[in-house]
């Protein structure tokens, strides 16, 4: 996969994405990340990328020309690749795990990180997706882009050491993930559930499913309305409600 990020603050993107799992994926050539300072594409002699809005209003808007020319340069390099061009915008569609899974199937992703008050509306005509990290406003799109990149890249083949991890994570199954334990078996009076140490894989899987349902029921009951519960899950959910 190739990822391009358009930003006014390249270091804000380059340094974090050079670390940890994403950095290792780049080293293994599973991933290519290109960070573009779109200020360099401004046709203004002062490299200005923003201006006052027509009709008045607070703040400055990003101009369409630098973004357009930067995207044009990327397209010239990768015209043979299918791509999604993603505009980070508080008014966009909320990002979620399903979207990360969709993005992970693409050959190329291009993220446009905004700044200032907003965008010239014509920038929206250049993108395939307008995406928001959540119902709040950040000073720029860089943090949102990095979150989306991280959530997407970890789903790529061979990026995680254990590929099953991505498939069983919270939200990937439609449920929150069950609790996990590691050694020691006893710590400060807190023990590990006996079922996890008895070696009976059927009982362990049943416990994991039940505790995943329990956690979802207690913390995110809205998620249960979005999935089709099997008969086993319905039975376990009744047990959970009686226990709670």
From TrEMBL:
<keyword id="KW-0819">tRNA processing</keyword>
<protein>
    <recommendedName>
        <fullName>tRNA (guanine-N(1)-)-methyltransferase</fullName>
        <ecNumber>2.1.1.228</ecNumber>
    </recommendedName>
</protein>
<dbReference type="InterPro" id="IPR002649">
    <property type="entry name" value="tRNA_m1G_MeTrfase_TrmD"/>
</dbReference>
<dbReference type="Pfam" id="PF01746">
    <property type="entry name" value="tRNA_m1G_MT"/>
</dbReference>
<dbReference type="GO" id="GO:0032259">
    <property type="term" value="P:methylation"/>
</dbReference>
<dbReference type="InterPro" id="IPR016009">
    <property type="entry name" value="tRNA_MeTrfase_TRMD/TRM10"/>
</dbReference>
<keyword id="KW-0963">Cytoplasm</keyword>
<feature type="binding site">
    <location>
        <position position="114"/>
    </location>
    <ligand>
        <name>S-adenosyl-L-methionine</name>
    </ligand>
</feature>
<feature type="binding site">
    <location>
        <begin position="133"/>
        <end position="138"/>
    </location>
    <ligand>
        <name>S-adenosyl-L-methionine</name>
    </ligand>
</feature>
<keyword id="KW-0489">Methyltransferase</keyword>
<dbReference type="GO" id="GO:0052906">
    <property type="term" value="F:tRNA (guanine(37)-N1)-methyltransferase activity"/>
</dbReference>
<keyword id="KW-0949">S-adenosyl-L-methionine</keyword>
<dbReference type="InterPro" id="IPR023148">
    <property type="entry name" value="tRNA_m1G_MeTrfase_C_sf"/>
</dbReference>
<keyword id="KW-0808">Transferase</keyword>
<feature type="domain" description="tRNA methyltransferase TRMD/TRM10-type">
    <location>
        <begin position="1"/>
        <end position="226"/>
    </location>
</feature>
<comment type="function">
    <text>Specifically methylates guanosine-37 in various tRNAs.</text>
</comment>
<comment type="similarity">
    <text>Belongs to the RNA methyltransferase TrmD family.</text>
</comment>
<comment type="subunit">
    <text>Homodimer.</text>
</comment>
<dbReference type="InterPro" id="IPR029028">
    <property type="entry name" value="Alpha/beta_knot_MTases"/>
</dbReference>
<dbReference type="InterPro" id="IPR029026">
    <property type="entry name" value="tRNA_m1G_MTases_N"/>
</dbReference>
């Amino acid at each position: 996969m190739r990822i391009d990020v358009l930003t006014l603050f390249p270091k804000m993107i380059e340094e974090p994405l050079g670390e940890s799992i994403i950095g290792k994926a780049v080293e293994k050539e599973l991933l290519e990340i290109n960070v573009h300072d779109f200020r360099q594409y401004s046709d203004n002699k002062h490299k200005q990328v923003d201006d006052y809005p027509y009709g008045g209003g607070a703040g400055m808007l990003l101009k369409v020309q630098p973004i357009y020319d930067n995207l044009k340069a990327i397209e010239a390099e990768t015209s043979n690749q299918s791509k999604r061009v993603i505009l980070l915008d508080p008014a966009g569609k909320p990002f979620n795990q399903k979207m990360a899974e969709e993005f992970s199937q693409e050959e190329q992703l291009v993220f446009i990180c905004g700044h200032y008050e907003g965008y010239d509306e014509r920038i929206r005509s250049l993108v395939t997706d307008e995406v928001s990290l959540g119902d709040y406003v950040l000073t720029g799109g860089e943090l949102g882009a990095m979150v989306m990149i991280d959530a997407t890249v970890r789903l790529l083949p061979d990026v995680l050491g254990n590929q099953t991890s991505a498939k069983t994570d919270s939200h990937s199954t439609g449920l929150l993930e069950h609790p996990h334990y590691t050694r020691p078996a006893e710590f400060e009076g807190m023990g590990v559930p006996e079922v996890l140490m008895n070696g009976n894989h059927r009982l362990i899987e049943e416990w994991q499913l039940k505790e995943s349902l329990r956690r979802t029921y207690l913390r995110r009951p809205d998620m249960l309305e979005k999935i089709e519960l099997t008969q086993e899950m319905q039975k376990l959910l009744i047990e959970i409600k009686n226990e709670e």
